[in-house]
Amino acid sequence: MIHVWGVTDKGEVRPQNQDGFYLELFSEDSAVGVVCDGMGGARAGNIASLIAVETFVDVVQSLREELEEEPQAVLNRAAAQANSAVYSRAETDPDCRGMGTTMVAALVLGRTAHLLNIGDSRCYHISGEGIRRVTRDHSVVEDMVARGDITPEEARNHPRKNLITRALGAEGQVKADLYRQELTAGDFLLLCSDGLSNIVTDQELLYEVLYGGVPEECCKRLLNIALSRGAPDNVTAVLMEIL
Questions:
Q1: So what's the architecture of 2-242 in CATH?
Q2: 89-106 confidence digits (pLDDT tens)
Q3: At a CB cut-off of 8 Å and minimum separation 6, what does 157 contact?
Q4: CB count, 10 Å around CB of 106?
Q5: Full-model pTM
Q6: How far apart are CA 36 and CA 181, in angstroms?
C-alpha cells in the first residue's frame, strides 16, 4: 500500500510560484508523482512547469497498460513529450522564449520505484537506515563535486549553485537520467525542488520524515522550516510512504 502527500508554496521572496507537482494513486500499491521547477522570466517559468507536468501526466495516463511491462520506457517517453511541448511553446511564443524547467518523477509499482530526473530537483530514499539522494543533480556545482574541486558542504553555499546544466524545454531533445530503487515497508520517497533542498539539510529531512510527527503533516512541516528561514525560492515537497 502507498500513501502520498504534497505541498507547494511561492516562498517568502518570489512574487509567484513557478513550481508545479502532481500525485496520483493508480491502485493500492502503484502511484506516480512528479515535481517541476520552472525558470525563464516572470511568466514563462510558471508556464514551463505547468506544461511539463500536464504533458508528462497525460502521457503516463495514456500508457497505463504499458506501465508494468516497460515502466522506464514510459517515463522516458513522457519526459520526452513534455520536453517537446515546453520547447515548442518557447519557440513560438515570444513571451516564453528561453524558458525551461527541471523535472523529477517517481513511478512506484509494488516494491519498486522507477525514477527520472532532469535538472536539480531531487528524489531522496528515506528509511530506518538513513537518507540517500537517489538522483544526481545536473548542475555546475554537482559537476565540481564529482571532480573533487569542492566538497558537498561547500556546494550548498557556492555562488553558482543555481546554475543547471540540463533542463527540460531548453532544447529540442533532452536526456533524462533513470534510476531504480527497491523498497520495503516503512520506506519513504521524497521528491522536492531546490527551494527545499537548498534550505533544509539531508539530516533535517530524515528527522522530519521519520520522527517529526505524523507522515501526513510532514510536507507542511518541511515547508514551515523553509519559510522560517526566509524561503528565498519556491518550495515544493512530495512524500510517498510505502506500507
A1: 4-Layer Sandwich (3.60)
A2: 999 999 999 999 999 999
A3: none
A4: 28
A5: 0.96
A6: 20
